[in-house]
Amino acid sequence: MFYEKTEQLLDLAIWMQSSREGVSLKDIMRRFGVSKRTADRMRDLILLRFPQTMEVDSDTREKRWYIPQGTLKDMIQFNADELSCLNIAKESLEKNHLHQKANELDGIITKIKASIKPDTFRRIEPDAEELMRAEGIACRPGPKIQVDERILAPIREAILSCHQIRITYENKNSKKISYNTLNPLGFLYGDRNHYLVALHSDGFGDGRAHNFILLNIKAVKILPEVFIYPPDFSLQKYAAQSFGAFQEDPVDVEWIFDTEVADEAAHYIFHPSQKMKKNKDGTLTVKFRAGGRMEMDWHLYTWGDHVKVVKPKENRLQKNK
Prior knowledge:
six-stranded mixed sheet, four-stranded antiparallel sheet, 12 strands
């Protein structure tokens, strides 16, 4: 608890140094979810520890404070989670062909790394690399799913330390509760659901990785038992077996986009293994092999009648039109 309060005060101090317009008591209450009385105490502690804090001139009657630039230069450090978030953002930009923005973000990452003390960087870099490996980006623009950080945080910690976890899991259809002991490998973020990718510690399912819907995980406990991360497992290769994030046996896929949307479709990466061919009649053929039939159907719906499904033949979407 003491550590958390200290971390909150440091976050507040950094925020007050980065804010040009200053920070008010209402701002503190909203950001940290505290009462006015607690916000008063936090502000008073900042004034005590950082006497150079100044009150901002404002046209409103609401008081605001800021800490002059440079005051906290020796106190601001970056952790593995923050570095991995930046690298994941860069990877996402690259996947969406925003290469200039990805290069600019890469420059920011390089500057941040250069500002980190050498001994700190040597300590956090391996953790940042592990988190990058564990966070599988398989998402597209659209509605975002919010997952409780109280579920994500212990799973991330267990992935980094290679500790087993025990989860309380609710079945999506039957609503039945089960308890699973797992070796967590990473995350996959999809359009409709986000998943924990994990192995059952007892080898259930022929020792293959399984997906657990993050929203259906009701509780997580880190266990003292450790596991060895499979040296031949790659989250990227695992994700590439499917269209989106849902895993099932792969099938041959062949779509033909009509002339009206062929040029637009040519700019899409539907799957890492795809092969595209511009046909003589102006249509576009896309072929790849993957599972995730339901997610394919949902995506095809956005193209309406402008796409014809050649394979697989049993396409539920066009069957119901």
